[in-house]
Each structure stands twice: as structure tokens, then as C-alpha cells.
Amino acid sequence: MPLYTTQPLKIYNSLSGEKENFNPIHEGNVGMYVCGPTVYSNVHLGNVRTFMSFDVIFRYFLHLDYKVRYVRNITDVGHIVDDVDEGEDKIAKKARLEQLEPMEVVQRYTVDFHDILKSFNFLPPSIEPTATGHIIEQIEIIKKIIDTGIGYKANGSVYFDVVKYNETNNYGVLSGRNIEDMLANTRDLDGQSDKRNPQDFALWKKAEPEHIMRWPSPWSDGFPGWHLECTAMSTKYLGNHFDIHGGGMDLKFPHHECEIAQNEACTGQSPVNYWMHANMLTLNGKKMAKSTGNNILPGEILSGDNNILSKAFSASVTRFFMLQAHYRSILDFSDDAIVAAEKGYKRLMEAVDALPVISAGATSSIDIASWKQLCYDAMNDDFNTPILIAQLFEAVRYINLLKEGKETITAEDLATFATAINAFVFDVLGLSDEKAADSNNDKLEGVVNMLIGMRNQARADKNFALSDQIRDQLIALGIQLKDGKDGTTFSV
Ligand SMILES: [Zn+2]
Predict the structure, then answer these.
(1) Which of 3, 84, 95, 312 would disulfide-bridge 304, Cβ 3.0–4.6 Å?
(2) Which residues are placed with Cβ below 5 angstroms of ligand 1, an ion?
(3) What pLDDT does 188 receive?
(4) Strands of 331-333's sheet, edge to edge?
(5) Residue 231 Cα, ligand 1 centroid: separation in angstroms?
(6) All domains of the chain, ordered by start, with CATH?
(7) 12-66: pLDDT as tens digits
(8) Alpha-carbon distances of 16 from 36, 40, 173, 315, rounded to whole Å
(9) Which region, left, alpha or beta, applies to residue 18 given φ > 0 means left and ψ of -120 to 50 means alpha?
(10) Is the preceding peptide bond at 271 cis, omega within 30 degrees of 0?
(11) Alpha-carbon distances, residue 29 vs 65, 186, 242, 269, 428 (angstroms)
């Protein structure tokens, strides 16, 4: 029997503002779309936190035996600077400033994004579509929205008429904003814009002559509006009606509000059952911003190469630190906080490593089944990782008492206990046992030092063919020997 049948889950739905029972559209299956990065700069730590929240959500669904299709896009066109309609495309601007092809910018930062996520032990999504790969689908959606009378053409561009849409639908259903207030609080269009109302958003923008990212369309050579790509890619791979749509809190308005409007205008139905939003990350109590220097890159945590840090921290420690906060709470990053997280992570790993040395007895003095259910209860309550971690520390306490012989456990309970701990620590939270990786490093060091010894012997025997062969074959494996006055060292 799949685990999800015995572990019902509640999700906080941004649409209703309440925790709701999770009922997938197709039993045993989850369709989840998460807005991915705009690849015009290095991924920042706040993005890593957002994607980590959804990585753990993805992992937990998999753990519950759901079949998950997780779609996370790459925005490589259409995202205008300052998230507005007038102005320059973020990718195109970067390409102009750095004198690169837009696709060089996209490639550079897509690779950076993948490298960073991999180093923090993220699972790859099931599909990672790009906006530029779905221009045809976006054009088709625009045609449908024009046919309903809600999309209108103006000077080669196409806009979405939010006022007209709001006559029959609710523009503001997700963000709680009210169109009358929005209209009252914006200044009049200054005559420069082609829009009917200031709140209207672009579905298609005509490209200016100097604009290098452009595609042919029935309206002009141009490019799609930013909100449209997510409507096109989510419905293409998950259907017009799917389970979960996620993203950072900052995307709720206008991006996700506009997605809902586009879908409803196009298909007549609301696209998503559960909208999920991950909260932001601050640094030393303040908003992160490159301009003020209150900024840290994810890679700098791993290298320690930032004044904010007292030293380097591992990927697992960083994950552990981030998952100690619930995804809907603001998380503040500071050196003190991650130092404390490192201590907790080490304590947890020491206990996990001690599991195999615990010996079973005739009876159990600990209620393992209840403890395990408390772990599930935490995750079933809107993916509450801090409560899960608190339960894992309860397990650490049990392990220490068992080691000291102050509690007892049967072989069957011990097996259940070990399986559950390993599942929650490694599969669900995505932590890794870095001591195990260290011990592999120790083995590598031992083997290379053995070869260095054999090479020294070959040289002493004047068997230079053999000593050169050892050196060259190590180089072929990416291991460089360096002869110094204190002997031979190596680097990988
Ligand atoms: Zn999106």
C-alpha cells in the first residue's frame, strides 16, 4: 500500500489563506510547477532557499510514494527590468552590457544555477523547460485570449485588459488586491503607453529595432510577456488544471495573479488547486542587496570567502540551517546562526553514525511507532521541517540513552527506527553524511600515498619508465604530484 494512503497531508494554500487537506487531481499523482530563475546573473542565496523549500516538498511527495511530475522553468526571455512592461529585457540588458550574445548570458548563468543547486544536493526537476523553447505555445495562448476580447492589439504589441477581465472574473483573487484600489493608486498613463489601463500587462511586446531577442508573430516581430511563459509551460506539461504551483513570495503579485488571469481567460477555469509561496531570506536582519554590500553568494558559504563569515560551511550544514525554519517564515542568515546549525548538524550525524552499534534487547522501553508518527505529523502539517528536526533531536536523545544502556529496544523496533531516521535525514531533508565523504577522501589519500611510495622506490631502483608511468597515469586521473624538498605531495 502506498504510504500516502496512511499519511494525509495538509498544505497551506495562498489562494484560501488556510491549511487544506491535500487531494491530488489524479490519485497517487502530483503535478507541481515552480517558477524558476531568470538566468541573467548568479543565483542568490534567497533563490537557493526558495528552491530548497520546493526540493524538500518534492522529496517528501516522493517519500510518500506519489508519482510526481515536477516542472521548474528557466526564464531566458521576457523578464523586463523592474518587473514592469516598459523597459529592457533583463537578459538583453546583460548581453548588451557584457557584449555577449543573449544565449551566452543564458548559458553562463544556467550552468551556474545547476552547479550551485547540485552542490547543495538538490534533486533535478522532472522537466526544466525554457521560455525561448515555447514561443509557439505562447503565441497560441495569446490568439485565444484575443479571441475572447480580453486581449487587445496596440501598435504591434498585445495587452491583457484587466478591467474587462475583472467584469466577469476576479483580478486579485490570489493577492487579495482590489482593482478599484489599484486603479485609484496609479497615476494616469502619460500618453506614451499603448495600454488601455495602467494595470494591463503585456502578452506580446513588439521589439524595437535595436532589440536582439525577437521572434515572428501575427502581430509583430517581438517577444512574449514574462507572465505568459509560465502559463504556457505549466499547462503544456501538467494540463489546464493541475495540483500545485509554487514560487517565491515576491511572485504572488503581479506574476502569479497574471498567470491565473491568463489561464482563466484562455480556458475558462482556474489552473491550480494549491498555490504555495516560500518566504524570503534576510542577511544579518536586513534585506539582501548587492548595492549595499549586505549580500552573500551561495558559493561563498562553501568557500568561506566573504567577510560576513568566520569560516567555510558545508552544503549539508547550509541545508540544515535553512530547513530549521519553516518555508513560510522569514529566515535570517548570520554567521552565529549557521555556526549554531553546524553544531546541531554534527550532533545529529554522530547519532546517525552510532545507530549500527546499538544492540537490540528483548523489549523496547521507547515507543518508536509514536515517535515515527510524530515525524510524519510534522511533515504532514504543511511540510514543517523545524518540527521534524526537533523530532530528530528527540531521536538523538534516544540513541544516546540506548548507547548508555538506559533504554532498551527490540531488533524489530531498532530496524524501524534506523529506517525512519535515514529516510527523514537523507531522503526527505536531503542532508548527506559528510563524514562518510571524508572517509572516502582518507582512502584516496592512502592509495595515492602508496603510489607515491612505489614511485619513490622505482626512482631509487632507476626504473624511470615505471616512475614516469605512475606519475602520468595519476595525471590522467586528475591527480597532480608535486616533488618538493620535504617529499612528494599531491593535489586533485
Ligand atoms: Zn513563473
Answers:
(1) 312
(2) 35, 230
(3) 60
(4) 286-287, 281-283, 331-333
(5) 8
(6) 3-153+164-177+226-278 (3.40.50.620), 296-428 (1.10.730.10), 434-491 (no CATH)
(7) 999 999 999 999 999 999 999 999 999 988 898 999 999 999 999 999 999 999 9
(8) 24, 34, 9, 35
(9) beta
(10) no
(11) 9, 43, 10, 21, 18
Annotation: binding site? 35, 230, 255, 259, 290
**What separation in Å is there between the alpha carbon of 233 and the centre of ligand 1?**
9
CA distance 100 to 89: 14
The DSSP symbol for 356 reads G
Give yes or no for a contact between 363 and 408, defined as CB atoms under 8 angstroms apart. Answer: yes
d(CA 313, CA 424): 22
For 309, the grid coordinates are 563569515
Say how many Å lie between the CA of residue 129 and the centre of ligand 1.
12
Coil/strand/helix, residue 23: coil
- 436 C-beta neighbours (distance < 10 Å), count: 10
Q: From ligand 1's centre to the CA of 52, what distance in Å?
A: 17
Cell numbers that stand for 488 in this block: 612528494
Give residue 249 CA to ligand 1 midpoint distance, Å.
12
Q: Which three cell numbers stand for residue 252?
A: 504572488
Cα of 36 vs centre of ligand 1, distance in Å, is: 7
How far away, in angstroms, is 461 Cα from ligand 1 center?
Answer: 67
318's CB contacts (< 8 A; 6+ apart) are 120, 298, 301, 302, 338
Helix (H), strand (E) at residue 422: helix 411-422
Could you give phi then psi for residue 422, rounded to 5 degrees? Answer: -60, -40
Binding-site residues for Zn(2+) sit at: 35, 230, 255, 259
Res 231 pLDDT > 70: yes
